[in-house]
Amino acid sequence: MAEVRCITYSAEEKAIVRKGTGAIREVLLGPDNNRKLSLLFALDWFMDPYFQQDISDIKEDLKELLQTVVVSSGDYDVSDDALNLLISYTWPPFPILEQNLDRVPEKLKADALYAINMEEEIRKEMRESSTSKEKS
C-alpha cells in the first residue's frame, strides 16, 4: 500500500512567505523536509491567482529558488512539489533546471523537460486541438 502523506500549513508558514525570499530560502534550503513541504503548500496558496495574494515583488526570486529546490533538495516529494509550483504558476525560461537537468530526480525528469519546453508544448497541444476540431 502506498504511503499517504498529510501536509498542512499554518499562520507560521504564511508569515514566512510574507517576510520574503530570505525567510523562504532559509526553510527551503534547510534540513527539515516536513517544514519544506508545509511551506511549499503555503506557497501554492500565495501563488494561485484565485486567492489574490500579491507576491509580485518576490515572484522572480521565488521562481529561481524553486528551480534550485528541484535540483538540490535530495527529497523526491520536496522536488516534486517545487516543480509542480513552477509548472502551475510560472513560465519559462527555467535556466537552473536546464543547466542542472542531471540533478533532477529521475522520476521527475519528464516533468522537468515539459516545464523547460512548456511554451512549445502548449503551442503544440493547441495546434493539435485545432487540427482535430477542423477534421470534425
Q: Which range does the strand content fall in?
A: under 5%
Reported for the largest beta sheet, the result is:
none
**Share in helix:** 55-70%
Helices, by number, come to 8
What string, H for helix and E for strand, traces the elements in order?
HHHHHHHH
- The pLDDT mean sits at 93
Give the N-to-C terminal Cα separation: 43 Å
How many beta strands in the DSSP annotation?
0
Shape: globular
Overview of this protein structure:
By secondary structure, the chain is mostly helical. The protein is built from 8 helices and no strands. Helix 2 (21-28) runs parallel beside helix 4 (59-72). The radius of gyration is 16 Å and the shape is globular. It starts with 10 loop residues before the first helix and ends with a helix. The model has no long low-confidence stretch (mean pLDDT 93).
Features:
about 140 residues, globular, about 0% strand, single chain, mainly alpha
